[in-house]
Amino acid sequence: MIPDRCHRPKIHPPVPATLRETECKTLHNGIETYILNDATYDVLRVDFIFNGGTILSGSPLFSDLLCQMLKRGTETQSAEQIARRMDFYGASLEHSVTHNHTMLTLNTTSRFAEPVFSVLEDILKHSTFPHKEYLILRKKAYNNFRDKLSIAKKRVIRRMKQVIYGPKHPYGRSIRCSDFRSVNLAQLQTLYRQIINSDGCRILLTGHVTPAVLQAIEEHFGRNDWHATLGIASPDPFLPPISRIQRRHFFLPKDDAEQSTIAFAGPVIERTDPDWYPLDILTSILGGYFGSRLMKSVREQYGYTYNIHADIHPFYHNGYVYILTETASETTEPLIQEVFHQMDILRQQPISIDELSTVKAYLSGEHSISMDGLFSHTFYWLSILQLGWSKEHFYLYEKELQSITAERLQETAKRWLRPQLFQIIICGKKTQ
Amino acid sequence: MIEIHRHRFSNGMLLLHNENPHTPMVCVNLAYNVGAKDEHPDHTGYAHLMEHLMFGGSEHVPEFDLALQPTGGYNNAWTNSDMTNFYEVLPVVNIETALWLESDRMKALSLTQDVFDVQQKVVMEEFRLRQFTQPYGDMNGLKRGLLYKEHPYRWPTIGLSIEHIANASREELFEFYQRFYAPNNAVLAVVGAIPFQEIVRLVQKWFGDIEPKDIPQRNLPKEPEQTQKRTMEVLRDVPASVLTRSYRMPRRSEVDWVVCDVISDLLANGMSSRIKNKYVQTGKVRKGDAYVSSTIEDGNFTFLFSPMDKDGMPECESIIDEQIQQLVEEEVDEEDLIKVRNIQQVVNEYELMDYKEVASQLCYYELSGLGADYMNQAVDVYCKVTQDDIRRVANQLFAPERACHLYYWSKKDKIV
Questions:
Q1: I need a labelling partner for B191 at 20 to 30 A (CA). Which of B16, B53, B202, B285 fits?
Q2: Which residues of A touch B67 (CB under 8 A)?
């Protein structure tokens, strides 16, 4: 049988994704524990969300060192013993820090939950912050910091955040050289008492959450022996005003560079702004997926780049628009012109019905895919818990997407995609 | 354990399938048995360039991505030395679109001069990005050049030099396509909420009329046994010097490949592993690692160290020697072996949750000669590795004359 290749198969609307419900239990000491139970596999992920992130600590360095020091010794176990016990059960403990929260993520299996929880309990309640370990970690962190500064993309992003928010604003604050001189062990120990306690903590359990797992959670983390002793950290501390650096171009020299790494630092938009979702959709049209305007022109028409990406980088209260790419030194200028030309087109002409329907289908599918798989729901719930939103918030995007019009997008482009709102940061050869 | 079905169509195409009812999506993963190892030494980077060209439109599909996007799915592809892998993830109700697209470009790729010209430039930019812009970007290629003198693993997938890509022509690439892109040179894995009989019917519908081709017998040059230690030094603008010491190791389908992997786990998987615990966690070295390649043909076992300061390279060499000596002379603790098995079991459980990962692994195991069912056997194979296996393999693997030392000096550590 020869298939009809001339006509594409019928497209069916995908089943809209729904966010899985969590069950909430309160532990004896007041910790709210959210449960995404799924017994299909024996995996178990435990996320501890603590109030207090880099705004409280003062620097991403201090937060990072705090989390790493937790694993480096307790009253009864050395760093080596902790590592050995975690590894023995194939468990891993990762950390991540936002401006407002510190998160510890344990990946293990339901069958090994009890012994692994016992190690984790010891870490959370009885870390001793040994000085020798601190010196090692500080040196490693400094090396990592230097390594990252050798990566053009990292340098450009670091500069972009400084330019947009000002170097003193927490959102513009990266690790500085001076942080390594100012950090000290006593400060980390204070942060430990401020952040790692049951009063500013919530737990999200994902995976095979058996009654035995729940009982072990209660036994290890539900007791009244790790309350805050230095006050409860705020999940939403005061933010100073944004103080954008007013200059059009910024240049970061890299003498031997074959390519220019280019960032377009765009405007800041508040999360409560009615343009938030329209602008989110608009940046996707501009450069958020493979069929976007910039990919089609800069990559697929001119071959200037391997990749170009536009997006809103979201923070707790607001986000900023950016475009990021690399190109050969000699095509730097034409690429920049083309990016502004594409913004121009979006301001001047409404997008066609065909493109709009393709974008809607694609972004809707992307949204559904982002909720596909158990751990995808974990990520959504972590956001809900951190941002203090209701579950319904996650359907707003889909609603906005389905109702948005070409006119609304053009209006948004006229407001937000103006060249004067973008500053350009280039890392590359000096001769440019 | 997952249930794996297979069906060979009359044109030679192999279908692998696992029904996963836990997702409304499906992953369609099509792997062609062609990679950088099938290239001519003077025309490298073609398999990867070909991967880019496969998105440039086919007889009934002007633009691949544009045709997929309305389904609510996404797609991508990757190439390595052994294979070229394309995949689509989309709602299962729209699976026929993926099959239509993949079958159309397998049957009749357009490959116009315009598409070729643009993708040639894009790939050259990718070459610059990977090899020059990213720090340590050329290190893997240099290591390959030391390890392999005859075998095509000696060049990286992106190509031996940017000139090879710059000098390529549309005609050469079309010839490459004609030679390797055929149903009898492909493995299709479908994982998602679709029953086996249904997917057999749909694959037959879309791919059944594509004629098989005369695929040239792969006759790769055999890499001669290394009889002398090899050393190379380079100077680069990177933040820290790095030393790699590599040894050629068995091909993927041999049981001893797993023994090598267990050795690398003992040395460097987890913070309590020998290298991490003794040297990395204690701050004696900047970086310390040991890992195996997953190549199908003879792979490589690599130690990677970065010293704390500019005089630390000899110490890194001593650490590697000491670790090898320990493996060769001393019996591994039973508890350490249990730890490695536990790690493998947990990793396997997390992998099985991801239907995209399962689809790509099924193709990989099939093409590697292990067979797709290995997906269910892998953990058992790791559990069977004994203390004696480790000493035996370490003895063979780490013979001094088989070592390849690459000194990747940072300019700030070494003045020429």
A1: B53
A2: 8
